[in-house]
Amino acid sequence: MAPKNRWREHPAELLRVGEGFSLADVDPRATPGWGGTKQQGKAFGKARGPLLSELQERLYAHGRTGGSRSVLLVVQGMDTSGKGGVVRHVMGMVDPQGVALRAFGRPTEEEARHHYLWRVRRALPTGGQIGVFDRSHYEDVLVARVDELVEPAVWQKRYEEINRFEREVAEAGTTIIKVALVISREEQGLRLMERLQRFDKHWKFDPADVDARKKWDDYQQAYADVLDRTSTDVAPWYVVPADRKWYARLAVTELLTRALIDLGLGWPTPRWKVETQQRRLAATMDEATIAEARASEKAVKKKLKRDEQEFAAAVAAATG
Ligand code: AMP
Ligand code: MG
Q1: At what angle do helices 49-64 and 245-263 cross, to 10 degrees?
Q2: Regions in the chain scoring below 50 on pLDDT
Q3: What is the DSSP secondary structure assignment for residue 267, as one 8-state letter?
Q4: Whose CA is nearest to atom 11 of ligand 1?
């Protein structure tokens, strides 16, 4: 039996940053909209795999035949908020061929010589791809502001610049989903401490993480301003409570599924005629093999019909 869809309300509506949003009112331990247990949530997220993967194949096929649509998932959050886990989880459910992952760290020497959006433009997904950003241009109004890497006048004008940039990207055919993972200060303390308690997690720890943690309130203010100033119609922010890792992964899976469904992509139609190519191919085959192909045609078409019905039903269930 397929696990039950226990979303009471779609996270796309619940988590979207709109008018009157307040970061201070977000409960990082909450699981908005999910009406089931952790186990049920995990099972349901896993069961999204086949649908997500078929949706992605359609997008990929669209790109391979010259289409310009793509999806960009931007993942932001404090250290230990689970960005890597969300990214790994999402990537694990689709064909790696169609995903372009980019993690943004401290700019390299070359990157630092360019405008801050330079490295971002180069990492944008091309037609048919799902682009995933682990951190992003938002670091240039977060860490750059909190650590005073640039003057206030410089980062202050970046919000509008980012909005313009994202509008351009959206107009070129990219659906943008921006996810802010929100953890509590207590949970971050626990996760950082665990990294220190386990020698197999030391590689994840950076002494600078403690410095950033000491500036918690400054970061909260910087995040609040980002959410307030850069959640737009074409590139909305979704604030995802992330103290419960399973919820964050489940919610992001659902946001991505919805975005892919909304693309409404069918299978591309070829530029050549099927019958003509069938005749040409048949001319290269012997009679017995042609007969074999003919004999299985009915079963092939039947399976196709069933697959299409299952897909339509899954889409209807996911949107209904
Ligand atoms: P991690 O995501 O744990 O690999 O850490 C990446 C680090 O790079 C974080 O400390 C970020 O704050 C930092 N970083 C990312 N983008 C920028 C940027 N544009 N300027 C300065 N630091 C950055
Ligand atoms: Mg880190």
Answers
A1: 40
A2: none
A3: P
A4: 105
